[in-house]
Design goal:
With 223 residues, the protein is mainly alpha-helical. The chain has 10 helices and 6 strands. Helix content is 40%, strand content 6%. A hairpin with a 2-residue loop joins strand 5 (189-191) and strand 6. Helix 1 packs antiparallel against helix 2.
Amino acid sequence: PCQFMFWQQMMNAPDALRHRWAFALSEILVVSVSGIGGNTNWPSFAVARHWDLLCEHAFGNYRTLLEAITLTPAMGGFLNTRGNQKEDPATGRVPDENYAREVMQLFTIGLLQLNIDGTPRRGADGRPLETYTQSDVTHLARVFTGYQADVSGLTETRSPRPPHPRIWPLPHVQRPMVVDASQHSTLEKRFLGTTIRAGTSARESLRIALDTLFNHPNVGPFL
């Protein structure tokens, strides 16, 4: 159903260029109905909302789009920021690193440092220079903890099919995710030359992280 909607809009919408550019963005900022089906009620509607945001921000600022997409339940379900919990030394739990890795590798800066013409920058040994390290991923993952679907004002039901999971009404996949502060990591976060001090709020941590990624010199040539 989602693919049909995308193609129908690209072929018939009066603003065809916007929809074609949104389609190009959807090849970078990827989500999948099958990839979020087990994590999100109404997965097709979640992906439809993702598409709407690509169309809405197609001709705007990429930093604005990046934040909007980061907070969608579709992306939260696909790359595990929805329900991502802070570290727990007692159990050994650490924040899920999926989105932290993908937002760098696929959505912003890529794997290799680039010159403005897209060619790899090289070190003194002649080898291409990498853009980030595992430490960058680990620390950036702390930024994307504590996020949940916004179910405020909604009443859940239970599926009649065993094991009777909770089902929230449709609007929760159309709203940006919100923060459960008790599950957000307040540890220091060091990545890509930026330091977010310990105790910084989730909202401010997200702002600093996305600003850092957006202003990285690789974003232009990589995208």
